DUF4030 domain-containing protein (Bacillus suaedaesalsae), 86 residues
Amino acid sequence: MFPVIIDGMMGKKEYEVTGFAYSFHPSPLQIILKTSIKSTDKDAKERAAKVEQTVEEFLKSDELKDVVKTYPYKIVVRSKDKKQIN
């Protein structure tokens, strides 16, 4: 499941994703995307929303929807300065 997201997000510069992590503890599953976006950028929230929306699309794709439906999850988009921006 995660390689599809990693390849899709890190392979496109427009998303500014620089890293990926996940955690099952504490619940729900956290899918964490690290970006080069600064939390102080005026459009940081908008750019983070675009990243989050794209990950949601991956998770709802035919390839992943059967895997994901069994896990509650939360998408976390982090800024370059390690703050959650979504």
User: Anything to note?
Assistant: The longest helix spans residues 44-59.
